[in-house]
Amino acid sequence: MSKGLEDVVASTSAITFIDGVRGRLVYCGYDIADLSEHSNYEEVTYLLWHNRLPQRDELAAFTLELGARRRLPNGVMSSIDSLSLDCDTMDALEMAIASLGIYDEKELSRMETAQSIASKIGTIVAYIHRHKSGLHQLEAKEGTSFASDLLYLLTGKEPDAFSEKLMNVLLVLHADHELNASTFTARVVASTLSDMYSSVTAAVAALKGPLHGGANERVVEMVQQVGSPENVPEFLQKKLASKEKIMGFGHRVYKTLDPRAKILRSYAGRVASTSKEKNDLAILDALADEMIRQKGIYPNVDFYSGFVLQHLQVPTYLFTPLFAVGRTPGWLAHIMEQYSNNRIMRPIAEYTGSRDERYVPIELRGKINA
Ligand code: ACO
Description:
Mean pLDDT: 96
Largest sheet: 3 strands, antiparallel
Strand order of the largest sheet: 1-2-3
Bound molecules: acetyl coenzyme *A
Low-confidence stretches: none
Radius of gyration: 22 Å
Number of helices: 16
Number of strands: 3
């Protein structure tokens, strides 16, 4: 028995390779460092779904197809409109993806369904945000890139080229990560031959937890709590002494710095310009140094992503939903891979309970043994 399924090989996959010792992450053969620098959301999505990079005309056609699927069915919009303004954004996202399964176009192929979910999840997150904030809803645009439209729907402004690049970097770095908890969840649901909307809804539910995608919000809260880099050693000492987990650190697979955290740190350094940003980044760096020194535990992807999202004026409650937007192409790639070579996932448990209790009628319980 392996608690938490550590080191258990649960499936073959040709999508993502992780070298946890050297700190490498590779999508279909391509290193994440190259992809985040030179590629974008559309190209990486194509790569994950087709296992190869597209030719120029293929990428242009794919980008148009994704763009044409961004607008939400009326039923999904009214489901979100009916939510209370203080609803949890990840709960709202689960509900909205499930409702997309009800209201989306019928008789789409698997690839078209994947396109529809991946395109619409960005619009859904922005729609939830604008609903919660009492902002008027905007129409998704067709002819722009996914990253640009997402920023436009969130902020109401056309993004500049650098903000679009930054959003692409975030999306590309989050696009896939082998059998992490949410992707494994998606594959388990797909393995019952349930539909793609249900599989993605389940993945969103798994991502919500603070041990998975919910950590980036907690990192930002922690930075505010610490206040200044000098407070870091005492802050950490107290938390570690009380056996608390420090959010944004540690990983089941990486035994060194998460390569995504390394790339995000370099962008954080480039964008930090206000005194608050410089102070926050100094706190993050001090936390990273001190954790490595005291515990030998390194930052993961959630450590710097919140900082970069804050720079893009994204409110904290959207951090995990945007992680979901980024991870959706990966979830869908794994769901399609699962369907293509399926066997229902059904592990077994090592039973630790009793086996031979005698049934006692309720009126006699507590008396018979006295
Ligand atoms: N803070 C303090 N100690 C830690 C941390 C941490 N963040 N992470 C691991 N450790 C310690 C554990 O206490 C344990 O020590 P012990 O052997 O003395 O008991 C040891 O390192 C191994 O940790 P486990 O919890 O067994 O590692 P596991 O692989 O089960 O968990 C996880 C990995 C969930 C990511 C864990 O490191 C954690 O809780 N991190 C904080 C939450 C977080 O940042 N999650 C985002 C992960 S990335 C992602 O999902 C996108």
